[in-house]
Automatic annotation (TrEMBL):
Protein name, entry field: GDSL esterase/lipase At5g03980-like
Alphabetical keyword list: Glycoprotein, Signal
MF-aspect GO terms: hydrolase activity, acting on ester bonds
Family indicated by similarity: Belongs to the 'GDSL' lipolytic enzyme family.
């Protein structure tokens, strides 16, 4: 009798949950999104596909690499991202006792953008701030500065030493934004903060101090450093908004969005035991990361269940984690300041969540069937 009552109680709860999920899913899909942009121009590290997710969220075509498309395609949006790009020039690293990275820096990305812009605008439209293309585009800067700090940490800089680099890094980002506004006539720019570095296997390996670990298994000091950079960036954006009141400068809070994903990892399908492990790594405990053995090299294994991992190679997120991060960024109020004027929900994000919800609804249905036939 007691077992029967217990099963009945669970059935009521599960049926109610099933009904709520279906209602929420149907209600969300009924919302419409309107995109005010014609194209996206992205800058940052080409190893990240964040710009593609932004494009999908806004129902725009993904920006293609500028190296594969000529100036005749400029107006449809392009990606100027390059592998491992830093925001700072080589001299910045040299004066701070850091060997300069071999990759190109983001300033060269913007210079390349301006070259394409002027070559194209002389053919199709007015140049300068009166052009008809860039004001209708979204300029997306994905984690500017993250590779500068990564490079500093990989060359032995402490968190305290890296903290002194933040003001100059952010000032350079600010100057880059101003150049895009003044020379190209950008009207809408989205600049993301950096992710919580203390939650990544690579940086946790570089800074293994046990007394710095918070409740979420992240390195407290590294996360405070990430917040420091983001606070500087937020202040710079506020100053730019005052200086250019007719320009929409949007801050994308990657930090808070990632923490939200981390807190809800089980619901999203990420295993607790894998939260701080790289899917593609050397196998060394506890983070499955070795700076001397990179993903793709001989002897470095790849996990068989990537979808249950947040981290791909220690520095980058898995595609599943990145998708959840971007969905969270655009679907939760408070992660994008100010909110993009695309309605309460965007069609792409809602559709993806719709399929995930119904996948879970299917799981709940199987549980109900199991209880019915116990």
């Amino acid at each position: 009798m007691a077992a029967s009552v217990c099963i009945s109680h669970h059935l009521v709860v599960l049926v109610l949950l099933f009904s709520c999920l279906v209602v929420v899913s149907s209600f969300s899909l009924a919302k419409e999104a309107v995109c005010p942009f014609n194209s996206i121009y992205s800058f940052g590290d080409s190893s990240s596909s964040a710009a593609d997710h932004v494009a999908a969220t806004l129902s725009l075509p993904s920006p293609q690499p500028y190296t594969q498309r000529g100036t005749e395609f400029f107006e449809s949006g392009l990606s100027f991202a390059t592998p491992g790009a830093t925001i700072m020039k080589p001299f910045f690293f040299l004066k701070n006792g850091i060997p300069p990275p071999p990759q190109s820096h983001d300033l060269s990305q913007i210079s390349t953008f301006m070259k394409f812009f002027y070559e194209d605008c002389f053919s199709f439209h007015d140049c300068g701030r009166n052009n008809k293309v860039i004001p209708k585009a979204l300029i997306f800067m994905d984690q500017p500065g993250i590779n500068d700090y990564k490079h500093a940490f990989l060359h032995g800089k402490s968190i305290s030493e890296a903290s002194h680099l933040a003001p100059e890094v952010v000032e350079t980002i600010k100057n880059s934004i101003e150049r895009l506004i003044n020379e190209a006539g950008a009207k809408t720019l989205m600049i993301s903060g950096i992710l919580p570095m203390g939650c990544f296997p690579s940086f946790r390996t570089l800074f293994p101090e046990g007394d710095s670990i918070g409740k979420n298994r992240c390195h407290r000091g590294l996360n405070m450093f990430s917040k420091l950079h983001n606070d500087h960036l937020w202040q710079a954006i506020l100053e730019l908004r005052l200086k250019y009141p007719d320009v929409h400068i949007i801050y994308a809070d990657y930090y808070k969005a990632f923490i939200a994903v981390l807190k809800n990892h089980a619901f999203l399908g990420f295993k607790t035991n894998n939260l701080m492990k790289a899917c593609c790594g050397s196998g060394n405990a506890p983070f499955n990361f070795d700076v001397q053995k990179k993903c793709g090299e001989e002897g470095v294994a790849v996990c068989s269940d990537r979808a249950s991992y947040l981290h791909w190679d220690g520095f980058r997120l898995t595609p599943e984690a990145l998708e959840n991060l971007m969905d969270t960024l655009f679907s939760k109020k408070g992660f994008v300041f100010p909110e993009l004027k695309v309605g309460e929900e965007t069609s792409a994000a809602v559709t993806r969540r719709h399929f995930r919800i119904h996948a879970r609804v299917g799981d709940i249905s199987s549980v109900i069937r199991h209880l019915l036939f116990v």
